[in-house]
Amino acid sequence: MDLKRISPKIAVSPQIKPDDINAIKAEGISAIICNRPDGEGADQPTFDEIEAAARAAGIEARYVPVQSGMVADTDVEAFGTALEDLPRPVLAYCRTGTRSATLWSFHESKKRPMADILAATKAVGYDMNGVARRIANGGKTPTDTGDAKYDVVIVGAGAGGVSVAASLVARASDLSIAIIDPADIHYYQPGWTMVGGGIFQASDTAKTMGSLIPRGVKWIKAAVAAFEPGNNAVILDGCRVVKYDRLVVTPGLKLDWAAVEGLEETLGHNGVTSNYRYDLAPYTWQLVQGMKSGRALFTQPPMPIKCAGAPQKAMYLSGDAWFRRAVLEDIDIQFMNAGGVLFGVKDYVPALMQYVEKYDATLNFFHNLIAVDGPSRTATFKVAQPDTTPENVTVEFDMLHVCPPQSAPDFIRVSPLADAAGWVDVDQATLRHKCHDNIWSLGDVMNAPNAKTAAAARKQAPTVAENIVADIAGLSPTAAYDGYGSCPLTVERGKIVLAEFGYGGVLKPSFPPLLLDGTKPSRTAWFLKEKMLPPIYWLAMLRGKEWMAKPERLKVAAE
Fold first, then answer.
1. What residue stretches are annotated with the FAD/NAD(P)-binding domain (predicted)?
2. Please, which pLDDT band fits residue 407 given cuts at 50, 70 and 90?
């Protein structure tokens, strides 16, 4: 907990946890305002969890969510109403505290000098000069000038962002590069399936962000509010402006827990879990270990989602654990898939079906999770079979593993960079924006028709770096991304079906069939997943060492 007192009546802080509530009470705080929408981060407790802990400690809590960087007049009004209603002193929190400090600054600007506001926020580490400019400019943040300027600005410090920064530094160390990301922790998300299967510890999948940003790259610890490509500008939380010559957009995607009615309230309780959240993956393994009989549901929402195989990986590893403990015959495994096929690349389906049969799992296609009642342990699905009238079906469960619906982040969907579906609109080969020549995108947020996996970002980062360097030199794009993605399907402890494919489902194996046939379960592939891929991620991919990821030549350029 990092509580910062702006005044005797209000403090702000980054994200708090339920375990922090007693310390918050000891600081004399009487009420809490949450300004962070649920589901914004992979390690974020829900407001319901915070509220329950606060209520138990005699502290009032209020939910006033504000989308990252999008402080509107209505948000300021709601924040002011909460301040008036709640007992003082109040603690307001968001991801970093910036949104809360911004809301307070706008609220106070109606009754105290801006100089006093700037001094109070600066004293606790928040720069509100951008707020002052926005107020002075009639409510709009001017972008003709900026607070900082870089040759390349990268939005997002996940797998794609750090990798492309490292690849750029390796090619052109004299570039001024900045990465914008508010997160303190960087996660190796492909490891969470293994956490949920009892193979990895959750702590092994996390490192501090500061330890991973390449040397010489500026880390701007802030959230993005908006893009103004016409002025080569990015607007940040607190209304600060960063200018660029070239921009890379790679913030990942949004896990929309709230899209399923009742889900947020019961996550981590009542047998409801998800390997898509850092703090819940250990709960998955806890449930698997404790289950001896009953029904286990595993859900998969409509595409696109990150790592399309992850929902069934959880099913296979759970089934394997129950098989090894000789309790499988008393457990009813049901796979509830909103889609119509087990896996999108048919070459891998026969091997997967062997394990569906081994674990006696029932495949329920066109079943989309729409509601969860945790206390009653029921899940409701919208069943929309082709050429039939959709109907809702409610199923009882003892364990429910949820893969949440997913979309582009809100600040991307409403931006001029997005296509009609909300994803960053790029050329699928060069990953350059279709309308803005000095903008590129990679990772889960862009609209190329590839699988959204870390393995895809590993191939995309060198492609983007190569094409940016070519653009700086005045050349046309030289590198092409072929749609490569990889999904190591953990079908049992010790064996993996290593799915590797490109655009159109074309198989893209990295190894000769005699060494590793990806269409069959393999111990070699398990060794690769368990022992090789984590160090390759941390020590190669994130450091610009492009092992087996050298960019392919763009055919047009080669000719």
1. 150-270
2. very high
Residue 376 shares a structural domain with residue 446: no
- pLDDT tens figures, 276-331: 999 999 999 999 999 999 999 999 999 999 988 999 999 999 999 999 999 999 99
- Residue 30: give the domain boundaries: 4-136
Residue 265 and residue 189 share a domain: no
Pick the catalytic residue from 34, 239, 403, 487.
487
Residue 18 burial by CB count (10 A; 0-12/13-18/19+): exposed, middle or buried? middle
Tokens of 532: 């090789």
Residue 208: strand pairing partners: 185
Q: Are residues 228 and 361 in the same domain?
A: no
Tokens of 48: 């319901």
Q: Name, in order, each residue with C-beta under 8 angstroms of 414's C-beta and a sequence gap of 6 or more.
A: none
Residue 345 structure tokens: 């690349």
Q: Residue 559: is its pLDDT beyond 60?
A: no
Q: Is residue 47 part of a domain?
A: yes
For residues 380 and 476, state if they share a domain.
no
> Of the residues 110, 136, 162, which one is the last residue of a structural domain?
136
Annotated catalytic residue, options 34, 239, 307, 403:
307
pTM of the entire predicted model: 0.87
pLDDT digits (tens, 9 = 90+) for 330-350: 999 999 999 999 999 999 999
CATH code where residue 532 lies: 3.50.50.60
Q: Into how many domains does the chain fold?
A: 3
Find the mean pLDDT for residues 399-412.
94
Distance of alpha carbon 466 from the chain centroid: 26
For residues 247 and 263, state if they share a domain: no
| 445 in Cβ contact with 412 (< 8 Å) | yes
Q: Are residues 100 and 182 in the same domain?
A: no
- 3-class secondary structure, 44: coil
Identify residue 219 by its one-letter amino acid code. W
Q: Is 94 a catalytic residue?
A: no
Q: Are residues 296 and 313 in the same domain?
A: yes
d(CA 274, CA 406): 14
Q: How far apart are CA 161 and CA 40, in angstroms?
A: 18
Mean pLDDT, the chain, rounded, equals 94
Give domain status of residue 141, yes or no: no
Q: Catalytic annotation on 403?
A: no
Cα(182)–Cα(84) distance, rounded to whole angstroms?
Answer: 29
- Residue-wise pLDDT for 344-388, tens only, equals 999 999 999 999 999 999 999 999 999 999 999 999 999 999 989
Rounded-to-integer distance, Cα 260 and Cα 270, Å: 16
